[in-house]
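> forwarded from #structure-qc
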């Protein structure tokens, strides 16, 4: 199975794009809903929780895990890739969402292998933006990667700490949601001296659910980038370039869902989002 991890149900926006782009594979989705949101947690705690989730997915037989969660990708992925995997799981792979998103922000076409220090930096210039949780923005992961791949692009990053809770509460449309969406966008524009970026990356799994409301508040000249699709197309390309890893993946079209909180609540939310039946199971993640 391909393991897909998120702090909660928002990562189903990424899974849904994966199912459209790569439907043949088997998937196991894990939501750490009991400990979500991760967005305001410290780097140490996000690291710890993410590692527990990844190890559980490995135990279930996932040779490849995608961290759909931006906060986990920003805070824990480097540690997992550089320290944990080489020592404990050298044959398994964990991928995140920051790198493929930055490639898309930089205008690097899918299929172009972008390796820092080896790929000529993108010629793109102008202003782009990333919106995310406090932890994602504080980590500067997007800034660090973008400076390597497209040093001429200017980046404005804005934390929108209330957007994920809005989605969790089902408040995705209406005056209440608009108030907080406007507030986040205004703060972003304060940093960019009023200029609208050419692209805004929705750097949090929950934000695509706010797209209809956001589209009304952002000028048409600004592209709103939904991470699910770009992650899915770049994962398809990664699998083509890593046939040794691709061969390990089951192709029976299986779908399994697990959550650390109430499986009925998760299944109900998830069915609406995925448009498919979900029977989630409950699990308890334990410190390792
Ligand atoms: N899944 C998280 C992310 O993509 C958002 C929700 C949270 O704060 O846990 O950053």
């Amino acid at each position: 199975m391909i393991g897909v991890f998120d702090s909660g149900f928002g990562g189903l926006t990424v899974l849904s794009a994966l199912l459209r782009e790569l439907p043949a594979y088997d998937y196991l989705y894990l939501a750490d809903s009991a400990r979500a949101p991760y967005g305001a947690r410290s780097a140490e705690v996000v690291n710890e929780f993410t590692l527990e989730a990844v190890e559980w997915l490995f135990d279930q037989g996932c040779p490849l895990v995608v961290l759909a969660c931006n906060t986990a990708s920003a805070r824990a992925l480097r540690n997992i890739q550089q320290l944990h995997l080489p020592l404990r799981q050298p044959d398994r792979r964990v991928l995140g969402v920051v790198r493929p998103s930055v490639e898309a922000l930089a205008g690097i076409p899918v299929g172009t292998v972008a390796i820092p220090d080896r790929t000529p930096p993108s010629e793109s210039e102008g202003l782009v933006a990333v919106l995310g949780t406090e932890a994602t923005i504080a980590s500067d992961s997007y800034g660090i990667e973008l400076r390597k791949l497209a040093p001429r692009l200017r980046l404005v990053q804005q934390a929108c700490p209330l957007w994920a809770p809005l989605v969790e509460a089902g408040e995705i449309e209406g005056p209440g949601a608009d108030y907080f969406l406007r507030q986040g966008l205004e703060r972003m524009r304060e940093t960019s001296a009023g200029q609208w970026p050419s692209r805004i990356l929705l750097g949090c799994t929950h934000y695509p659910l706010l797209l209809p409301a956001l589209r009304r508040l952002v000028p048409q000249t600004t592209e709103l980038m939904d991470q699910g699709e770009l992650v899915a197309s770049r994962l398809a390309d990664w699998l083509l370039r890593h046939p040794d890893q691709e061969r390990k993946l089951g192709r029976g079209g299986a779908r399994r869902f697990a959550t650390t909180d109430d499986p009925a609540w998760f299944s109900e939310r998830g069915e609406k989002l995925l448009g498919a039946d979900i029977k989630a199971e409950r699990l308890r993640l334990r410190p390792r």
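QC bot note: DSSP finds twelve helices and ten strands in the chain. The chain has two domains: 2-96+229-282, 100-227.
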